[in-house]
Amino acid sequence: MNSPSRRAGPPTLDWGVGHYEHTAARFLPIAERVVDRAVLASGERVVDVGTGTGNAALLAAARGATVTGVDPAERLLDVARAHAAERDLDATFVAGEAAALPLPDAGADVVLSVFGVIFAPDAPAAAAELARVTAPDGRIVVTAWIPTGAISTMYRIARETVQGALGAPAGPPPFAWHDRGALAGLLEPHGFTVTAEEHEIAFTDASPAAFLETEQAHHPLAIAGRAVLEPRGEHPALAERMLAVLEAANEDPDAFRVTSRYIVAEARR
Q: How many CA atoms lie within 13 A of 36 on its CB side?
């Protein structure tokens, strides 16, 4: 029997809850940028880590690559498989974690990850897996959010609120996947040279309130947090704080627009 004084840890997030499809649609231009950066050749073997609904995997397959998408969320894999079948694309989707990819050594010419591997709890283990499955002359292209701006602040507040409600320790800060030096520290020991470039994406909606409502209705992080906070009566206060962040950062007085920054990093042997 657990001691009443034991602190509960945050629940493991199931990215299949809610409708990540909505978020994936917002990220499609970023997936296109990543696949462009990879400069794929027809017939190359591509692995998409944290594939979700298959944005990058399907784009790569459409360019003639043989693609395997990996994700822990079975529902999202089913969505990706359905998209591949609809488009008659050569893409296979398998369940797996970034830190334990169910793939052979050196089997990928290109490894992609669009905001996927950055959520791995053990960054060094995940990086080692990316390196393990990449061929000796292969390359890795990943994206990571730069933790500034309204969206980052909004979800940081939500995360801290959920941790407080659970009595969970804050834990160490997330690994800085967005920092080229930190990423080089992970991948250079595996024989890679890392380069990175910064980009921006604008999130838009009819109003700050409309954007927040959509996020709350669809995003897996929001739905998981709501499940913790609503029984405690703490969700309305969090929603007010999040809305205030969005309103303060709004770049469009007639609607809603905020800009988030991210990096696209490439690692080559």
A: 7
Out of 20-24, 122-126, 203-207, 262-266, pick the least confident.
20-24
The amino acid at 253: P
Cα angle, residue 16 at apex, residues 51 and 238 outer, rounded to 5°? 115
Stated pTM of the model = 0.91
| Architecture of the domain defined by 20-268 | 3-Layer(aba) Sandwich (3.40)
Measured distance CA(166)–CA(10) in Å, rounded: 7
Q: Which residues of 136-175 are buried (b: 16+ CB within 10 A; e: fewer)?
A: eebbbbbbbbbbebbbebbbeebeebbbebbeeeeeeebb
